[in-house]
TrEMBL record:
This is Transposase. InterPro entries: Transposase_8 (IPR002514), Trp_repressor/repl_initiator (IPR010921), WH-like_DNA-bd_sf (IPR036388). Pfam families: HTH_Tnp_1 (PF01527).
Amino acid sequence: MNPKRTRRRFTAEFKAEVALAALTERQPLAELAARYQLSVPQISRWKLHLRQQAAQVFTDAVASTPAPPDVEPLYAAIGRLEMENQLLKKTLPTW
């Protein structure tokens, strides 16, 4: 009976290390695959992904963060609802 093989999961740091090693091209992909116990297509995918996403490293971090929501209308609505609630408590009879 064969033991069930679990799927390996790799950290982002490991993927970056392998992709950078592939980008430097000091070793053939076959040697890198043997060294890291990966397949050549997997290394090629990580290398391609690194090339496509490399520009994001140099983008301005401030531009990528969304602006905080405007809370003033929300506070105004809360105040209005509290006033209406108090008015209704005063005017409506209690059961």
